[in-house]
Design goal:
Length: 321
């Protein structure tokens, strides 16, 4: 949880009246360590969050005055350094968000510490004190790697944020889904499939759309100048998590977004051999609408956890070229 979220935590639920609220003795911080292997990692997870929770417990936290608290936290970093505590410097780290405006795609940068200076590059080189200062969303109109970091007094603070973009003819295009993904795996909605960012197949919480018992049926408006002969998409096969490869993928085209013609399909064998990156090649097309249907495995097979229940389908990046 971000530091500002911890600081704004209210241990007394608003649903309680004054009499009921008297029974709230205060907050507590639980540290679950099943995936933490050493105490340095414990320190990293606790600090500076505990500084925020302390003020919550004292009753002195004021979300409206978060900037004042932020400065106190930065002041305390010198003490944590002296104590050799391995604290998180996420207060200086950046967040990246893809936005679309007027048919163009941009990469928007932000940081919790809003008064810092952000510098970036878009050629894959490491940002330094001479790199351009971030002034607003960065136009993404070609394949590029954006690296960015926070700077203070011409010195980098925090870590470098890296984001790769692979641009194809479908990147940033208007896209519609027949079925909505599961609310736990919405990512950035349908636009996730055409944002030029490839999801990590080992970590499918971010940049993936997840469907439970539903097919992915996506229609992309390629525009009047479209000319393409390939479709690629990425899928996940993590059976222990009830996620399976699809049983079929089909590609259709249309001139009016009403009547579609099937031009290519692949089945289970080709999908299994794809290792998660499915490529469909066909004769060159110029139809303005292309529909990709990814059919989920109806039920989890016998012999697997969850056998008989609907299988999960995870898909990312529909690349058309």
């Amino acid at each position: 949880m971000r530091l500002d979220k911890v600081y704004s935590f209210n241990p007394i639920p608003k649903e309680l009246n004054a009499t009921e609220a008297k029974h709230i003795l205060g907050p507590q911080a639980n540290m679950w360590t099943e995936y933490i292997t050493d105490f340095k990692h414990v320190e990293y997870m606790l600090f500076p969050r505990l500084l925020a929770l302390s003020e919550v417990a004292w009753g002195t936290s004021d979300p409206a005055a978060y900037k004042s608290f932020e400065q106190r936290v930065i002041h305390e970093f010198a003490y944590l350094d002296k104590m050799n505590i391995n604290y998180s410097k996420a207060i200086f780290e950046l967040n990246g968000h893809i936005v679309s405006k007027e048919g163009k795609m941009y990469y928007e940068l932000s940081t919790i510490k809003q008064d810092g200076t952000i510098r970036y590059t878009n050629d894959g080189s490491a940002p330094n004190a001479q790199s351009p200062v971030y002034q607003g969303p960065i136009l993404v109109d070609k394949t590029m790697t954006i690296l960015a970091a926070s700077f203070a007094n011409d010195r980098m603070i925090g870590s470098v944020l890296k984001q790769d973009f692979v641009i194809s003819q479908s990147t940033g295009k208007a896209i519609q889904l027949q079925h909505e993904p599961n609310e736990a795996y919405l990512a950035n909605g349908a636009a996730t499939l055409v944002d030029g960012v490839y999801g990590n197949k080992q970590y499918f919480k971010k940049n993936w759309l997840g469907f439970n018992g539903e097919d992915l049926v996506a229609t992309i408006d390629m525009g009047s100048a479209a000319s393409y002969s390939n479709v690629e998409l990425n899928v996940v096969d993590q059976n222990a998590s009830w996620i399976f490869y699809p049983q079929a993928v089909k590609v259709y085209v249309s001139n009016d977004n009403q009547n579609f013609s099937l031009i290519k399909e692949v089945g289970k064998e080709a999908i299994a051999a794809s290792k998660g990156t499915i490529k469909l090649t066909f004769e060159k097309q110029k139809a303005p609408f292309i529909k990709v249907e990814v059919q989920h495995l109806n039920q989890i097979p016998v012999g697997h956890a969850g056998a008989g229940l609907p299988a999960w389908l995870f898909v990312d990046e529909l690349t058309v070229y």
